[in-house]
Amino acid sequence: MRTLIRQCVAALSLLSFATGAWATPHVFLVQNSGWMEPFYSDPQSQFKPLVGALAGAVVQPGDALVLASFNQSLPGAPSPKALLSLKADGKTVRSRVNAALAGLDTARKPGSAALADTDLGEAVQAAITTALGGKPGIVWLATNNRNSPNNDQATAARNREFYELIHRGQAIDKVVAFPLRMPVQGKHYQANGLMIYAFAVGKEGSRALDALLASGRIASVITEQPARLKPLDRDTVRLAPAQVEDAPGVAFSQAPGGALRADVDPDARTPRARIRWNLENTMYPYTIVSATLGARSLLAGEDRKIELASSRVSSLAPGKPQPLASTMQLPVAQLPDKWSMAALKSAGSAYVLPGRIELHLADQRLALSQAFRERMAALFPGDPLPDIFTPPASIQASNAVLPIEVRVHYGMGPLAALGGIALALLAAAGAAAWAYGRPRVAQVTVEDELRTMRARPGTTQPIYDKAGAQVAMLKTTLFGHQLTDLREGAQVRLGR
Length: 496
Prior knowledge:
The strands form 5 sheets. This protein has a 7-stranded mixed β-sheet, with helices on both faces. Strands 9, 10, 12, 13, 15, 17 and 18 form a 7-stranded mixed β-sheet that branches. A 4-stranded antiparallel β-sheet has the order 8-11-16-14, with no helix packed on it. The chain has 11 helices and 24 strands. With 496 residues, the chain is of the alpha+beta class. The radius of gyration is 40 Å and the shape is elongated. α1 packs across α5 (120-131) and α3 (47-58) runs antiparallel to α4. Residues 1-22 have low confidence and may be disordered.
């Protein structure tokens, strides 16, 4: 018994080996309980190659990878059981996962010919608490979605418990599922489909999963649209700008990554704009049956309500946007004047004011789309799978935050004008310096003797008579010469 316990602890310790400080830890859980028998025994099964291809696509260089099989943990039969732990180099992930899975088969209960049972919740919790050590990461679960701990035949109830774990689990920030068609025939069972779950643990895990979904790395292996299980209370809708009315010099567009962008001319001073949007549901496979919609904008430090033409949303299905008209306040009073320092610094580019639009859906009612129900019935005949996708009754509201940036495009005119003025001032200063430094010629008559004297502006020099006595001072300025300190009776004058 002690040996079996040590084996269990060693397996779980190996799972925790790869968490470290790597970029994104990935834990792949591969079900090998009795219900999975056809996926292992059918020679045409693509189950193992699928897991290897998915791991090779999503695990990037520097990421940690842990591969483990799971069924239900029993004394002498630990679950999950580590098969592979590595730091990805970007080249061998797929081949090493395939090699680790090559010898994996359906598990049996210790000391018995009976096939092992399944505990989905146990496997996911072990991955979060032990493999990831409570730190952020992504847990991937490959399963036929039949949850039957201790050979419990009430798989519907066990699946609901698993689904409740997803929504109650504070560590799980986001969950998507990929229902896949994979008909297999085994010695004991047959199956039509497989489910791949992706559990994002922590905010960092959620961002990493979003990045994978956006990059197309998952879609390169799984072309099925991901079904969202969690969250259902945030990022549920988005606005796509369609048209701007009664606001000259203002244009809205969709920036890369889904953010909104408002391009504003520097002379635009329209305080309000009528904007037509397309309201989109981002919660496949759920339809927003009904909800009350409110919106506000936070721009340039101003929190303002967005007036909507309709505050009710109904029958908003994914992929079928609905038009929504609104009147929105623009922060034109807060835009820098084109002669301001901020505008001059942004000349030739754009001055950016970041902000956001917040949408709130109250009294929200969700329903699983009929098309998704039909697909699940075909993939999992006789299984109450769609019921576990029913949104929890506690989720009756949701929020969506849409980043927006107001971009003011300042031309080069003011900067060029200031540059011209600066050049003119420099030229004038140069001319003044040259004029100031240039010697001036003065003709002075002393006792009927005409003398020529040279002096720079700002200087004063003495004038002597024929006997060598000082009779006056010659003061030179930018504007001419003058005699000062003239001795009484002296015969001195400017000019001839």
